[in-house]
Specification:
Helices cover 68% and strands 2% of the residues. The protein is built from 12 helices and 2 strands, in the order ααααααααβααβαα.
Length: 305
């Protein structure tokens, strides 16, 4: 029988990490300081005050992505510490590969962007966010190390998905970078679309794996990924001073990037929620009792003569 209380005890390190993450983020936000790589220009201080008024607690929408990066680090630390469990979980293989490529795109974007473009502003931005994004790359490389053994068919599907995401990001990008640096806008879209592929692959693997696959890490990933994705989706829906799914002409470099990224962000939440429901149903006491009964039924019967 699935013991929820036992799972909580087993997840004590992850829960302690989440508590520490919450306290660190809360203390930094409480100071209400701008920790971006570049100071707020004098001509933009009035705009900064308006943004801080709209976000009285977080100070800016960028803090949502800062929190997302912190939660991602807790998840990846759990994947490394519980490598045996993570290898048999839905997070491994294709989802970890897509997350790894998305992390590489984010680091490349931050490395190539000037301090006032694509770097997070606010209390959770700047060097803290940059360090978290850089550290995520080797952790995800470790988590995705078994993808090459997944078979030719699955590798072909992964390459097709990556190609489609690259094509979509090329023709649906923002216009935040300077003229001549459109590749930065493309990288931003590509990172988000790769995370959408990871969410879809996570759902597919959840449905294909048996109920006995994975352990504590599997439970933790199913619980944390929807929360993490909600932060990213909420950022995409609220950060542009426009109604959801409405394009802002001066921010559009090509296509309909806001509508695409907002739609896929909402879809990702759905993918993770369906995965969570499927996982809980597969581990329910009735399901496990049914499996136990079927195993007993398959045992040979010995009749006394």
């Amino acid at each position: 029988m699935y013991n929820g209380l036992g799972q909580l005890r087993s997840l004590a390190p992850e829960l302690a990490g989440l508590a520490a993450c919450g306290m660190i983020a809360g203390s930094i936000i409480y100071r209400k300081e701008h920790n971006g790589l570049s100071p707020i220009p004098v001509e933009d201080r009035k705009l900064w005050q308006e943004i801080s008024t709209e976000w009285p607690i977080l100070m800016t929408a960028d803090s949502l992505l800062g929190l997302q990066a912190m939660l991602r680090m807790i998840l990846l630390s759990s994947a490394v510490l519980r490598s045996a469990d993570s290898r048999t979980s839905p997070f491994s293989s294709e989802p970890a590969l897509f997350f790894f490529l998305a992390a590489v795109c984010r680091v490349a974007l931050l490395a190539a962007s000037p301090p006032d473009v694509y770097h997070l502003d606010g209390p959770l931005g700047g060097a803290l966010n940059l360090a978290l994004e850089v550290l995520a790359v080797p952790l995800l490389a470790f988590a995705s190390r078994h993808v090459l053994t997944s078979g030719l068919r699955r590798l072909s599907l992964s390459l097709a998905g990556i190609s489609a995401a690259t094509l979509l990001s090329t023709f649906n990008r923002l216009a935040l970078a300077d003229s001549g640096a459109e590749q930065l806008d493309m990288l931003f879209s590509l990172a988000k679309l790769l995370e959408s592929l990871a969410a879809l692959a996570f759902l597919a693997r959840t449905c294909s794996l048996s109920s006995s696959s994975g352990g504590c890490f599997t439970s933790f990933a199913h619980a944390l990924l929807p929360v993490q994705q909600c932060l990213g989706a909420y950022f995409m829906l609220t950060a542009w001073d426009a109604a959801p799914l409405q394009e802002v002409p001066e921010l559009v470099g090509a296509g309909s990037p806001l509508a695409l990224l907002q739609t896929t962000g909402i879809m990702d939440i759905g993918f993770y929620m369906i995965s969570l429901v499927a996982f809980v149903m597969s581990r329910s006491p009735a399901k496990e009792q049914s499996l136990d009964s079927s195993e007993d039924f398959r045992q040979p019967l010995y009749l006394e003569v």
